[in-house]
């Protein structure tokens, strides 16, 4: 099989490429250049896809004895990931840029080019598993990345490979060490790669500009003024610009964002509870729509816990009624549905949260 190995320059994608070589496939390594100005991407353990990561990936490819290329996806990344991120925050949403990058860059633009060039599959270092075409959680639950892959279609998964999903992270590092790969002890990447300073509010403000609005309490009393809803997210407690806790002495949190009026509403922790999720533009990873009502579990953050409930498809969207409330769910987040079974949780579907309902 002819395989394109997406090599970020980290230990996981390096071992994934090595395993595909060991399996006897015809492997070519590729690193994605995601910025026309590499200095605008984080370096070291703070991000991925930087110039130093490209150099690390090239060294690994040399050790493996495979061809290696750098493909320029900067324009596509800006349009489909960065611009989408900014526009989503301007609407008062809370997006996950890693989900969009996997959906629109690594398994759309990249895979499309790979297939056009005659490759059979794209291999990545994601921690997830494929079994009979079904996407499942990785063996290493702490590193599981099935959540950010749940936006992939059945056709995209048919041309994907996740060679490290059956192995725990410490074993991957040990394997890289045995193979003599220089990235064996390379630090993990964190945070948002295209925000070099780590200051998301400043990054958004520079692109969205000042859009004044008010911070109000549950009764509509104005507590403070702000420069734009992009500086807030549901569940936020700090940086609200208000004098202190509520009348009862309890902390106040962002409970609602209205981008059209510029209103940010705050309330108690209990005001953050939701019992229903509505997901737009659902993707069914098996290729078959759900037949409901169906008991399953939902995850709404990349490293969040699971919540049980009943889901069904109504008017083209996912509607899930939770058995127990979830706290601090925002529009724009991705909801991923799982079905627990003996072989490991299977991903059923994903959707972008468009609305929630409180108890």
TrEMBL record:
Catalyzes the 2-thiolation of uridine at the wobble position (U34) of tRNA, leading to the formation of s(2)U34. Its EC number is 2.8.1.13. This is tRNA-specific 2-thiouridylase MnmA. Residues 276-353 form the tRNA-specific 2-thiouridylase MnmA-like C-terminal domain. It is an enzyme of class 2 (transferase). Residues 202-267 form the tRNA-specific 2-thiouridylase MnmA-like central domain. The gene is trmU. ATP binds at residues 6-13, 32, 125.
